[in-house]
Amino acid sequence: MRWEALFADMEAQLEAAQAAERVVEVADLTRAELAGVELGDRLRAALGAEVRISVAGGHVVAGQLLEVAAHWLLVAEGPRRALVPLAAVAAVRGLPARSAPATGEVARRLGLGYALRALARDRVAVRIVADGTELAGRIERVGADHLDLATGVDGGTGAAQLWAVPFVSIRVVRSD
């Protein structure tokens, strides 16, 4: 009987040690998996949710998250829309703990220029928040790293002024 109790005790100790190893292994695997999660993955998991986004320069975009691309996201602020370059995001509130899979190759190629060209094509009146300035007008042209914004086109105050705005300075593009 003593031997059976001894072996039963040894078996219980072995099972406890294996269970402890599994806990450590699961924790390590979880940390390793989380290390590969990008902000875009978390944002994609929040599609349709209400979010609050702080962007560089102290501006805030708050509303329903409508779209997330590789380099930008689109938020409905009531009837208006706000296009935010992912590089301008300083902090986000309202994200779930889970993440969504990465976008496909085609979606990855739809950069900020693609979204801005759509706004230019549709002749949408916009308000651009850039580093230290805010401009209102229509996007006339979109280059590889900048856009040309015509201001004063709807005010009837004479000829429009054309501003070249580098993508890296753009914080938010709002529908006007």
Brief rundown of the structure:
The chain has 176 residues and is α+β, with helices and mostly antiparallel strands. The chain has two domains: 1-36; 39-175, SH3 type barrels, CATH 2.30.30.600. Helices cover 31% and strands 38% of the residues.
> If classified by CATH, what would the architecture of the largest domain be?
Roll
Q: Characterize the overall form.
A: rod-shaped
- Quantity of strands, as a count: 10
What is the makeup of the main sheet? 10 strands, antiparallel
For the record, the CATH class of the largest domain is Mainly Beta
**CATH fold field value of the largest domain:** SH3 type barrels
Q: In percent, how much strand structure appears in the residues? A: 35-45%
| Parts with pLDDT < 50 across at least 5 consecutive residues | none
Structural class designation: alpha+beta
Q: What order do the strands of the largest sheet run in, or round the barrel if closed?
A: 5-1-2-3-4-10-6-7-8-9
Protein name: Fis family transcriptional regulator
Organism: Pengzhenrongella frigida
Name the features.
single chain; 10 strands; rod-shaped; alpha+beta; 2 domains; SH3 type barrels
Helix/strand layout:
Layout: H1 2-35, H2 39-45, E1 50-55, E2 60-68, E3 72-77, E4 80-85, E5 89-93, H3 105-108, H4 112-121, E6 125-130, E7 133-142, E8 146-151, E9 161-166, E10 170-175
Antiparallel strand pairs: 1-2, 1-5, 2-3, 3-4, 4-10, 6-7, 6-10, 7-8, 8-9
